[in-house]
Design a protein that fits this description.
By secondary structure, the chain is α+β, with helices and mostly antiparallel strands. It is built from 36 helices and 18 strands. It is globular, with a radius of gyration of 30 Å.
Length: 878
Amino acid sequence: MPALRECITGEEWRRRLAGLQAEASLAKLEADSRPEFSLRVLRVLPKGQADSLGIELGDLIVTFDGKPVLGVPEFGLMRTDQGGALGLWSPRRGAYEVRQTAARLGVSYDESWIPALAYVRSAERDAKWDALVSAAAAGWVRDEEAAETALYHAHRAGYRGWLTPAIMTMMSLHHGRPAECMTWAWLAKETTPLSQRVQLLRSFVHTAMFVGQFEWAQKVIDANPGCNFNFGRVPRPPARGGETPCTLAATRPPGAALEGLEANSMEAVRTLTHDAPWSFDFNSQERALIFGPALRNVHFTIDLDWRASRAQNSSTPPQMRLHLVDISEGCEEKLVTVTLFPGQTSRFDIPKMLNIGLKGASLCREGRRRLEVAARGPWCELRLDGRTLFLGAARDYADRKLACQVDFSNVAGAITRVKVRDLGESPQAEEPSTPPPSSPASVRPRTVGASTAWYRKNLVEAYLRDGKRGKDWDDDAVEALDLAGLLLANPDDPSYRWMCLTASRRALERGCADPLVTFAYARAVEGADGAFRLDLDRMYYRAAKGLLASTHAPALRAFAAARSSARLAGSCLPGRKEEAKRMAARALDALRLAMADKAVPSCLIVDSLLDLMKTGSGSEAEANALAAEAEKLRPAASRHFKGSYFTDSAWKARGGDWAKNVRPEAMQQFEERMALGVASLEEAWKIDSKDPAILAQIIAAAAGHEKTRTSIALWLDRALKADPNNLGAARAWLQLNMPRWFGSIENLQSVGKGFFALACIDDLHPAMAHLLIDAHDMATRSRTFHEDEYLDGHIAAEYWRRPETWTDVKKVYDRILKQEPDSVYWRSRYAYYACKCARWAEAKEQFDLLGDRVAPEVFNGEVALHSQRMTAMSVTGH
């Protein structure tokens, strides 16, 4: 057992122990009839099933069909389509039971654990330690030092019960000692009663991820397939001469990242003396500071004296964030973030992998603090006042350049010193292993015609003629560019995006450095979820530089350069805005050449113009100047661009609040700009009545333009006659039928079923048939409803488990997989929705058919995929 600490002594210890014992007297605990572990009802939906059953705010959910409730996600897995008996405890009524039906319950809830009650009802009681253990169990959140000291004295008195490791697990996690948390959780997982074990396992997995022990995290996940551990994926960090962050963290204690490196260090860049500190006092708005130099392996030390601002004038809580940022080659990627809220909590984030909150004023107290962040090779470390809070993975590659960024909001104080040390070179990471091929068998283009032919000529044929070819990647590159053309012609289609992402990623991993393939990867990543988005800035920058130096189509050069310049313009790093302006100037030169070619698809010109607006001032005068230049050569594209600009600026002027809260002057500005935007879009349509993007945008504008809304049926008919597979127009119409706009859940389902019927009759693209499932997705989003309505995650889970929802899911995928039986993407999505609907037999069948080709992006990462697959196997008895 790890050593317990006597944190306080003497009179201070006696005073704080008395305070805890006053809150948790044994007599009160023995008379308390609350359950030890339950789900506390936080809200009851008016007129919902729970309301009609008499469930009230503050009631505790204890059992379902006689089985104890083990946690929030586990309760979701226990629920069945047939309903069941729900055992509850009420402060007013005591224990009671209701019978719920298959309909959604209509409550939101969180976990309630009362370890003091668990102790007084256990067989571990003894007068020698009763008062100590009950005080620790009741006060560990409020006073960690007194709680640990109480357990220390209880241990000396002879207590060896399960509550010591259980309390220390939760206390270590909440108060910023994740490595200790993992040790205590490992001891607690065997001795803790089953009804209270799940949250300890979850703590173990979270902290194992937190300190880089990915293999141990995976072992616990594999051993407990029925648990939901609430994060996206176990990372696959690059190898480092046979070492991984797993083995490094396992064999080296916290602090090893900085040991033995002093001889190879240099003090550099910016050192602020104590005599002339850099003072700050930020109210309301945020301010960011960047420290350098940008090095591959670096150690930053920042000394500061800070406090919450005494003159706050915004709803943003006082906070300070420290980021380790990769700023190499057009990229601005945050690898690790720590957020400090004075006197409250701290939060640590590893993007797309883990987000963990740590409570305790000792972690985030005001005053003098020292923050350190270091990265060397494929792992990094973060310290606060000499305490290691994070030791884990960081992506490593030859041209990595790391800087330190500090953000402030509603805080005051001074930075007294900044030190930067170069930690030298680290061994080169091994090349990533090649993933198994997952070639989509049938690719059915939605749009076949001039635009598709143009993309093939200027992507595939241009690569075969002038590209940086190689036998190791040629096949993947050609496939990626062919799919990139389909994606550019059909930007709303998720299947083309995933297939293009997969093929282009394989080509790049096999050594391809062609700018067209890099551009294809960036375009596919742009609308994707998951860790791939971290590459977006870098890849667009590389693609733009490569294409601008080539003789490829001016339209592609302009699009890549304009998109890269727009992303650079949003950076707060020194020199990026100047680079964005240079890139934008070159993009405009290429765009002038592209507009002279009538064969260039209009969407490339419109998107390039919109990106150039993000690099410039964004003013109406600038928009009119760009539109006037385009008017001479491409009048439809010019007016389409103006329409997009005015509709976007209308929504920005209005803001995202509910209509009743929008200021009258903002609403007037919104209506004026929306009218200008719709008028420009209608002029563009009169010039080019076959452009699907123009028609889709007119339908989308109906959300804020009443005249268009009154003739929406006419515009939808025009859109589907021009292109029966106009997915953008169909989705815009679906969104208008959400309750928060002009429809209802029933309208959503009706429109979705209408599109499905149309797809079956006219043999449309699978994505059109999938609109029926998209309608169900929209029905379970929190922003679907009016301001006074809501649908939380637990109710949404019940919605998906309804038999009628599964009927729709099954008939959609029966149709899609009849069209494309070998499609990895659509079959992976079928498996995902089967899991979502708790149809585990069907999910396992799809997993078996896919084997190791399943698309993890559909499941939001490898860990979620693995968990769902294991659940399907467990439930079906395999």
